[in-house]
Design a protein that fits this description.
By secondary structure, the chain is an alpha+beta fold. The protein folds into 3 domains: 3-80 and 142-331, BirA Bifunctional Protein, domain 2; 89-139, no CATH class; 356-457, Rossmann fold (3-Layer(aba) Sandwich), CATH 3.40.50.800. The protein is 31% helix and 28% strand. Bound molecules: adenosine-5'-triphosphate.
Length: 458
Amino acid sequence: MGTPTDSVTMEKIVALCKRRGFIFQSSEIYGGLASTYDYGHYGVLLKSNVKAEWWRAVVQERDDVVALDAAILMHPRTWEASGHLEGFTDPLVQCLGKCKRRWREDHLREGVEAAGGNLSAELRCPECDGELSEPRNFNLMFETHMGPIQDEGSRVFLRPETAQGIFVNFKNVLQFARKKPPFGIAQVGKSFRNEITPGNFIFRTREFEQMEIEFFVPPAEAEQWHQHWMAERMRWYTDLGIRPDHLTLRAHGADELSHYSSGTSDIEYLFPMGWSELEGIANRGDFDLTQHAEFSHQKLDYVDPQSGDRYVPHVIEPSAGADRGTLAFMVDAYDEEEVEGRERVLLRLHPRLAPVKAAVLPLVNKDGQPEKARAIYEELRRRMTTEFDTGGSIGKRYRRQDEIGTPWGVTIDHQTLEDDTVTLRDRDSLEQTRIAADQIVGELERRLGADWRSPKLD
Ligand code: ATP
């Protein structure tokens, strides 16, 4: 694969996403809803490939992790036990000057620190330099009511993380999945946080998807499994094409740790706005199971049938964002280059992540070429997401496919009708090779890798 340039900006990614139908502003016809996005066709395919590769790596190719899909609405006691009702807050400050904007105080401090400024000086509004209010703790959970009566007893929350759905099912899985620590439970699903300052496109939104594993281990093995998961998760990103020098592991300082964590490292990615968290890998200790045991009056410990040892497992949690990951894969794949005097924009996505694997293109839209191309397309699409495109010049069609990251173009021309060969064009090298039409499916499957199939949209 080629090396993408560093010409990418968030504006270019947003523009490409809109131009090619990956991601749109939500409710656009009403002027949009702030920081909320809808995924169009290619966006759905890309994000579902990201999730499918995650499922493959953490469940399919291991024998110690099982899947779960818990409800978004949970018993309200869950959030008392987890500490979210009390502690899931961000420090909110408001500008008392002209603009009245709200800010996260911790983000403002980080900004001052990053710029080498004086931390003991008074913070001012970054927008209008106005004075700021005293910070107040703002709870990030979205509240709603269940049933027709809106009172304290009907209050429920949209989950702010998928993790708690896993903890409350620990006992079920232990019983029915025939697993014993060390083992994990994996889940993908929507989470909601009433973020004070969402932004940077799909990096920080109020509704987003998480891919989380809670990995339950004997307490003495926690550190070793923390190390294991940090290495595994870093490898997952680089195996799928993220450049290693755009990724780093950063251990949290003591003042940054969440209320539940005895050690967290973030995988950070070099986004256009700078190094930012892509995934957190926390050692949650026995905090969650102990809390849920206390609040639910259920036993949530593990008894080793051989030794009779009873203990509350410790938990290692690799917690990734599906939308944030999708953004990182797009940013890393974005490239612009000049080919024969013309600029081309392309996404050098890993073929497994590419929304469309192959485009079948008749060179001219006549002389039996479209019919032959259609037959090849129908063969290919049974195995992988494929497009059939007869519209416009071949150059224009290639440009379209390059921008959505299609790794392979299959061109049908007059020679195809004579000797049944087609041209296979490689997105990255632009190399064109002639190959027998009946070998195309096998060749593309070989390039995707023998093990590429998994339960996914294509
Ligand atoms: P941040 O510091 O960026 O607010 P966090 O440390 O609160 O994130 P976690 O609670 O560790 O995030 O959540 C795990 C992962 O979920 C994050 O690494 C990120 O990929 C994703 N995530 C969290 N909040 C959001 C959000 N508002 N929008 C999109 N993805 C999110």
